[in-house]
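Re: weekly structure request thread

Next one in the queue (70 aa):
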Amino acid sequence: MSDKRLNNTIFLMFLATENYKRAHALSNKDFLKLDSRFAILNYISECPDIFDNMTGPEMAKEIDQYVSAV
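Done, posted below.
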């Protein structure tokens, strides 16, 4: 993975995480518990192109759909 793609992926992981936490009023600790159960950050890092053009609410909805499918 190129440095540019890696940086973009990390940024998308940050954005998606923050939007999901905001949508569900989660603390960092609460999100990390959820991530340890469902590997949300791994999901985002494996398919960052899905999140690339999404709005904040769309990111949260995508993560909700992922979590409900796992």
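The chain has a mean pLDDT of 95. Residues 3-69 form one domain.
Next request, please.
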